[in-house]
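Work Package 4 report. The design task specified in the project plan requires that, given a folded chain encoded as C-alpha cells, an amino acid be chosen for each position. We show below one input record used in the internal validation round.
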C-alpha cells in the first residue's frame, strides 16, 4: 500500500533572511502537525524601506504524512 501525504500552504516571514522565513514556517507548522516530510518554497518576496530589504517572505507548501487507515 502506498503512502498518503497532505499538503498545506503557509507564508513564513523574517527580518533576517528567506532561509529564516522558511524555517519559521516549518517550525510553526510543527507545533500543530505531526509527520512533516517535506517543504517546497513556491515564492520568494521581500519588502524594502529606505533602499534596504527589511522583511523576507516565502510561500511554502508543507507536506505531512497521514494515516490511510490500513485500507
Amino acid at each position: 500500500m502506498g503512502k498518503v501525504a497532505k499538503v498545506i500552504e503557509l507564508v513564513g516571514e523574517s527580518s533576517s533572511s528567506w532561509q529564516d522565513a522558511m524555517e519559521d514556517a516549518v517550525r510553526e507548522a510543527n507545533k500543530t502537525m505531526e509527520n512533516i516530510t517535506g517543504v517546497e518554497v513556491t515564492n520568494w518576496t521581500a519588502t524594502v524601506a529606505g533602499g534596504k530589504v527589511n522583511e523576507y517572505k516565502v510561500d511554502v507548501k508543507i507536506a505531512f504524512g497521514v494515516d490511510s487507515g490500513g485500507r
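The mean pLDDT is 92. Validation will be extended to a larger panel in the next phase.
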